[in-house]
Amino acid sequence: MAALAAAMSPSSGPIVPSRYTTPSPYHRGEMAVQDRLGTRLLAERIGRASVRDYLNDQAKAFFNELPLLFVGSRCPDGNMWATALAGQPGFIAPTDDHHLAVQLRQTYGDPVVFRPGDYVGGVGVMLHNRRRNRLNCRVESNEGGEMVMRVVESFGNCPKYIQVRDIAVDDEKLTTLGTENRVVTHGTTALGPEQRAFIQRSDTLLIASGHEQVRNGEDGISGCDCNHRGGSPGFVQVHGDGTLKWPDFVGNNLFQTLGNMEVNPHIGLLFIDFDTGDTLQLTGNGSVLWDERSLPGAQRTMKFDTVKWVHVLGALPITTRGPVQPSPYNPLPASADGSTASVVGLKLLARRNETHDIVTFEFEVPKSAEGEEKPFCEAGQFASFDFPLLKNGETLNRTWTISSPPSQVASTGRFTISVKKAGLVSGYLHEKLMEMHEVVFRGVDGDFTLDRAAKCIPRAGVLLVAGGIGVTPVRAMFDVCLRRAYPVTVLYAIRNLQDAAFLTEFQKAAGGYDDVTVAVALTGSGSMEEALAAFPGVRLFPGRISASLIAEVCPDAKEREVFQCGPTAMMDATTA
Predict the structure, then answer these.
(1) Residue 31 in contact with residue 164, Cβ under 8 Å?
(2) What are phi and psi of 314, to 5 degrees?
(3) Residue 442: count of CB within 10 angstroms of its CB
(4) Residue 510 contacts residue 538 (beta carbons within 8 Å)
(5) Quick count: other Cβ atoms within 10 Å of Cβ 220?
(6) Alpha-carbon distance 20 to 18, whole Å?
(7) Closest to 502 measured CA to CA, from 360, 377, 330
(8) How far apart are CA 361 and CA 429, in angstroms?
(9) Residue 459 Cα distances to 40, 151, 242, 550, angstroms
(10) Bridge-partner residues for 347, per DSSP?
């Protein structure tokens, strides 16, 4: 997404949908790609809801906790470079809602120069939990080892394709970062065998891109982006001397990087060895092979022709502690015979309707997971599935929260997902997937759990807030709370009683414990009297979930560990 983007006139490309009267958060290149791929209206809605010109409290805390910040910048010669800035958490400090002060220590041999007035793009990734936030900024000053950046855009990104790593920063190496000599290799178009091997074993790629536009003969808007790409080791392929190709996977449908490339083909790439701190930076020209889908998981293929590269051994003062946990979204790599390796086929054992538009699907726990000491899943985790051939021969990946509690999974050897009909894949499940049909299972993952998201549950207990289909992780967490004797309050928003999946389970539990409360916010026009009669013991309230309703239902909410899952509007309202 571009800094200071403006709505384009009809003569210069796609326009802002007529329903909006303010400029789009996208520039003409992004809008052109969104138009081409059929996501224009969706992207506009997402962008307007998520892109801010300031740092909210969550973003401030996020960037302040990072040990690494990945940054994209444009050099005076027009080349784009991606780089990594390192420090102990706190080296990035928000000074107010619009500024970040970075204690700047660049790696040895880094080709990036940060000059006042430059636009830069940043992406922060918490590698231990897959959280990701993006920044577009303008450098205001860079002196005395401190760079101050003014935030132009701030927005979050999804956790797809991020491998989990526990990164440690070496204090001794950090003190000499950028000053101690390192082995540096430079090159132009041709990559050497060491660089080729580096790329082919990498599972993570950072991409810098940008745009500059001219309107009516005057300087127009400009900006830079930096974003993350990930996959199984080898997802980036080297062809010839210096041409790279990698699959463009299913993403958030915003197409900021591709949109920048639409108007400016110059991009920069950064590969990192997270065990040794080695870096490989490349700058060159990128293009999109729109109809090339031969690589695993490719919706299209990205092509990069190298112009220059810099390879530095031990550039970053980092190491990885413990094993790497691959993303469950990573498309499975092709085996030597061209087939997909490590696919697990699961047969559907049963299905049942929870509501008119939610169906629960039951599968057997895969045999590869049996006998392991680690449980198959934790409450709140999701299961990942691949669906080949549903859309123009493409493989689509989808994840759904495991709705069955871990205790039930352990005792029955089965797990369930509960799916609301809302799109192509969910429609296929509802209409076509019948008992004994098989699906491709990718694995279980997710950090939205009681144990991982909370270091310890306070004495006051837990508050679980759910809206609509967001009830699925809450169902599993609720069971864990009961079994561990945590005081627990559930606040569940539904349109009407017909939408109330699992409410009967909550109601029965509430009647058996003194410290368990279940409350429902009825957002539709249903009868409160009917609801009270159908679910005695459940507290009922008309209207949507809000901060004031939470305070009424759970007066000690601020003393509890709170978990929320539901629509963005509900999540925003509860923190207002």
Answers:
(1) no
(2) 60, 30
(3) 22
(4) yes
(5) 15
(6) 5
(7) 360
(8) 9
(9) 48, 39, 59, 19
(10) 438
In this structure, the number of other CB atoms found within 10 A of the CB of residue 388 comes to: 12
Q: What is the CA radius of gyration of the chain?
A: 25
Backbone angles phi, psi at 123, to 5 degrees: -135, 125
What count of residues does the chain have? Answer: 576
- Which residue type, as a one-letter code, is found at position 468? G
pLDDT tens-digit readout, 305-340? 999 999 999 999 999 999 998 988 888 766 544 444
* Dist. CA 290–CA 191, nearest whole Å: 26
Q: Please state the separation of Cα 204 from the chain's center in Å.
A: 14
CB 485 within 8 A of CB 456: no
Q: For the stretch 75-114, what's the b/e string if a residue is b when 16 or more beta carbons lie within 10 angstroms of its beta carbon?
A: beeebbbbbbbbbeeebbebeeeebbbbebbbbbbbbbeb
Q: Report helix, strand or coil for 365.
A: coil
Instruction: Give this prediction's pTM.
Output: 0.72
Q: What's the gap between Cα 146 and its chain centre?
A: 29
**Per-residue pLDDT tens for 287-301?**
999 989 888 888 899
Tokens in use for 555?
């007066």
Q: Which two tokens stand for residue 97?
A: 């809602």
Residue where the block lists tokens 């810098």: 208
337-383: pLDDT as tens digits: 444 445 578 999 999 999 999 999 999 998 754 445 568 889 998 89
- 102's CB contacts (< 8 A; 6+ apart) are 69, 85, 91, 92, 93, 146, 147, 148, 149
How large is the angle between the packed helices 28-37 and 40-50, nearest 10 degrees?
130
Alpha helices in 94-215 (DSSP H): 171-175, 193-200
